[in-house]
Amino acid sequence: MGKQTLNLNDALYKYLLSVSLRDTPLHRALREETNRLEMGMMQVSPDQGQFMALLVKLIGAKRVIEVGTFTGYSALLMAEALPDDGRLIACDVSVEWTTMARRYWRQAGVERKIELRLAPALDTLNELIAGGGAGTFDFAFIDADKLNLRDYYERCLSLLRPGGLIAVDNVLWGGSVANPDDRREATVAIRRFNEFIFGDTRIDFCMVPIGDGVTLARKLG
Ligand code: CA
Hints:
Distance between the termini: 38 Å
Shape: globular
Number of strands: 7
Oligomer: single chain
Mean pLDDT: 97
Structural class: alpha/beta
Strand content: 15-25%
Radius of gyration: 17 Å
Bound molecules: calcium ion
CATH class: Alpha Beta
Number of domains: 1
CATH architecture: 3-Layer(aba) Sandwich
């Protein structure tokens, strides 16, 4: 047995899901409808969604911000993990994708916990900071365009309370970050971000090889 993280083949991943995924018919329906979209692969994996919902509960989060909502799967799972008076601010620019998201949030009975902001996420984050929101959020999930990754991170860090948690998605980018010949803009942006956060003394952190790679960063007090 090696020291590095086990490489999940299809059979083992299927097994992992079969003994761990606590799913609902609604979760499955949203995943399946999303998978039929051209961009369906942008959806977080079900095990990652369950992992983030657990994190929300573990830190006792009441205020969550999501940068990049897509069809709403991660927001649905996090909203379900929030207490009744919890709030999730969901940032996205797509009417089409978030209309689908809202349909599922409504069916799940969590729509009242979610405030959708249809605007460029940087505008929404800046507005929240200008409105006195700094230090008031418990959890942030960043899963949007990669070129603005560092800017999203800086703003989310300022919105978090000390001890709050940021989860950044796609930090392994399908493995391409380890290929020096891959010089696509998004790959370079993620690689730079990973190097930056490694040296960021404002946080404790860990890079978790779940889904497409998730970096967890805890804001120091
Ligand atoms: Ca993603």
